[in-house]
Design brief:
18 helices; 2 domains; mainly alpha; 76% helix; two-stranded antiparallel ribbon; Growth Hormone, Chain: A
Length: 469
């Protein structure tokens, strides 16, 4: 197979998929990490007398903590005659990945923009840090004590935050600006495949080897599976994705148009900075809304719809599946009609279906809300990152990828806290869709002030690229 350089005239879906294999590997790891590590932490912490006593002491001193955790659906029942706040401790530890992402992804995204090496700007970070992340990931379930487990977890989430921005910056580096929304739809589907592989990992290993992944010893196989996929994704990127030697020609291979090249080395002007700030605020509230849906839907389904966990998982799977089906049209529409228009239309659709359910409280509306909401969320997500890239310009793709993740990860950190408070105040999970609707309305208000980041029309981009030689 030839090395990958994405065509400047149209998106080569297969080659873009190859570029996205690094992202696929990271999605496999994160999709395994969330459910399995939280369970592992809960088991380890519950076996600690010190943690049990500390939780009981905190619960007695600050009873509102119990109410807050119960609002998030956590089991804070009795343990050794007192109360346990193990779920609270688990929740705090499980936010480390988002916190590390907020801190380190912009830093290493910017560092990758300035990297000059024979392998290019981005691949050195993927080649160095992804295998190290995979090794620590595989070791997590083998850690015998809480301190060693925490060292492994912290090391893993730290290393993962060092290469996510660079690996995501590969696609825009090798794709013409007017094609990035369409190419990002391929990356989104690639990440979805990674998440799907993670979901079926346990069942797949059980079917092939007879493993019971509920047992800690055999659960290790799931982590090893995730580590192998991460390493394979890294190998594919290392071998088949070609970056120019950034020591001599850092701009080569970016798919740049002449108009975009004018932005290289220049700072954002005042209006561009405003657009970036408004866009980050819009992303923050967007991810508060979408993350709240995926995080709390099972609890909502149990209380309001009377559904068990399996049924709730099926419904949230339908939400994600609708998004996957909408990914390619979202990219094509972003290129044809403009990114902001497609983002706004997606937000309006989300607001309409979520508000209809909130106001009418008609339970039959939940399925339209799931289907339309899932598709609308991808109309938004596929086009937001390319818009942020275009605000930044070609030579700061890594930096602005970091800014994007700063906003989105901050939203993911804030979502369970904010909705937990709302749930305590309202006393019902029926408030979930109203809370999400409010977040989407605020996001829409911010996006309305964004004035930059559109792709050049295809014909103009081609002409400018030809004139630039």
């Amino acid at each position: 197979m030839d090395s990958v350089i994405v065509n400047k005239d149209k998106v080569n879906y297969f080659k873009t998929f190859i570029i996205g294999c690094g992202f696929l590997g990271s999605m496999v790891a994160w999709s395994i990490y969330d459910p399995y590590v939280s369970k592992l932490l809960s088991e380890k912490l519950s076996q600690s007398d010190f943690v049990t006593r500390l939780g009981a002491d905190l619960a007695n001193r600050y009873p509102f903590l119990l109410e807050f955790m119960q609002a998030q659906g956590e089991n804070v029942g009795s343990a050794a005659g007192g109360f346990t706040l193990v779920p609270l401790f688990v929740g705090i530890i499980m936010t480390f990945d988002n916190i590390f992402g907020v801190i380190f992804q912009p830093l290493f995204g910017r560092l990758s923009d300035r990297t000059r090496s024979r392998l290019g700007k981005r691949r050195p970070f993927v080649i160095l840090f992804a295998p190290m992340s995979a090794l620590l990931f595989a070791l997590i379930p083998f850690m015998p004590t809480i301190p060693t487990l925490m060292i492994c977890i912290i090391g893993f989430v730290f290393l993962m935050s060092l290469w996510r921005s660079p690996v995501m910056a590969l696609m825009p580096d090798l794709t013409a600006p007017h094609l990035r929304s369409e190419a990002n739809s391929v990356i989104s589907v690639t990440g979805g495949i990674g998440a799907f592989l993670a979901v079926i990992a346990g069942k797949l290993l059980a079917a092939i080897f007879g493993y019971d992944t509920e047992l800690n010893e055999e659960r290790r196989a799931v982590f090893i599976f995730g580590a192998i996929v991460m390493i394979l994704g890294t190998l594919i990127v290392s071998v088949f994705v070609k970056e120019a030697d950034s020591r001599t020609d850092p701009a080569h291979g970016n798919g740049a148009s002449g108009k975009s090249k004018k932005k290289q080395g220049s700072k954002l002007n005042k209006e561009e900075r405003k657009s970036l700030i408004f866009m980050m605020c819009a992303l923050f509230f967007l991810f508060i809304g979408t993350n709240s849906v995926t995080t709390f839907f099972a609890l909502f389904a149990a209380e309001v719809l009377g559904k068990d966990t399996a049924s709730a998982t099926l419904m949230i799977g339908a939400f994600l599946a609708a998004g996957a089906l909408a990914a390619f049209p979202a990219g094509i529409f972003g290129k044809k009609f403009g990114r902001k228009k497609v983002i706004v239309s997606g937000l309006c659709a989300l607001i309409a279906v979520f508000a209809a359910f909130t106001i009418t409280k008609q339970l039959w509306l939940i399925w339209p809300a799931i289907a339309i909401g899932g598709a609308a969320s991808l109309f938004v997500n596929v086009n937001t990152l390319p818009l942020v890239w275009s605000i930044g310009g070609l030579d700061r793709v890594g930096t602005f990828t970091g800014y994007y993740y700063t906003a989105t990860f901050s939203g993911q950190v804030a979502a369970p806290i904010l909705f937990g408070i709302v749930r305590v105040l309202t006393g019902t999970y029926m408030s979930l869709f109203g809370f999400c609707t409010t977040a989407f309305i605020v996001s829409l208000l911010f996006i309305s002030f964004v004035r930059h980041g559109e792709a050049l029309p295809e014909e103009e981009a081609k002409q400018l690229a030809a004139e630039a030689g």
